[in-house]
Amino acid sequence: MSTKKIPQRQCIGCGEMKSKKEMIRVLKTPEGEFTLDATGRKNGRGAYLCRSMECFRKAARGKGLERSFKMAIPQEVYETLEKEMEHLG
After folding, report:
1. Can you tell me the distance from the alpha carbon of 5 to that of 63, in angstroms, rounded to the nearest whole number?
2. CB atoms < 10 A from the CB of 10, how many?
3. Does pLDDT of 89 surpass 70?
4. Tens digit of each residue's pLDDT (9 = 90 or more) over 11-42
5. What residue ranges define each of the domains in the chain, with the CATH number in brackets?
6. How far is CA 4 from CA 7, 24, 60, in A?
7. Residue 17 gets which letter from DSSP?
8. What is the Cα–Cα distance from 86 to 81, expressed in whole angstroms?
9. Across all residues in the chain, what is the average pLDDT?
10. How crowded is residue 66: how many other Cβ atoms within 10 Å of its Cβ?
11. What does residue 34 show for φ and ψ, rounded to 5 degrees?
């Protein structure tokens, strides 16, 4: 019997590889909106973050979201995502 492979994703904040279930997905919808996807199943382009505010802040400082989505991201988006992270945390 073979063991089931656990999907791994890299945090855009700290750069660590962790299982997909341990992480939060930052989602860019086809309409261009940014939101957090706790389920990991919503439609759109995603980037992954550890479930800590520290990793979120590292990603914001290090332009991790800009690199993942290949576009400039307004400050309001970071503020909205930070509020969502606080509710999930």
Report:
1. 31
2. 15
3. no
4. 999 999 999 999 999 999 999 999 999 888 99
5. 8-88 (3.30.1230.10)
6. 9, 22, 34
7. E
8. 9
9. 91
10. 14
11. -110, 135
Strands (E), 1-89: 8-10, 17-19, 23-28, 34-37, 45-50
Per-residue confidence (pLDDT) for residue 83, from 0 to 100 = 92
For residue 85, is pLDDT > 80? yes
Q: Crossing angle for the helix pair 53-61 and 75-88, nearest 10 degrees? A: 170
pTM listed for this prediction: 0.88
Structure tokens at 34: 């940014």
Looking from the CA of 78 toward its CB, the CA atoms found within 13 Å total 17
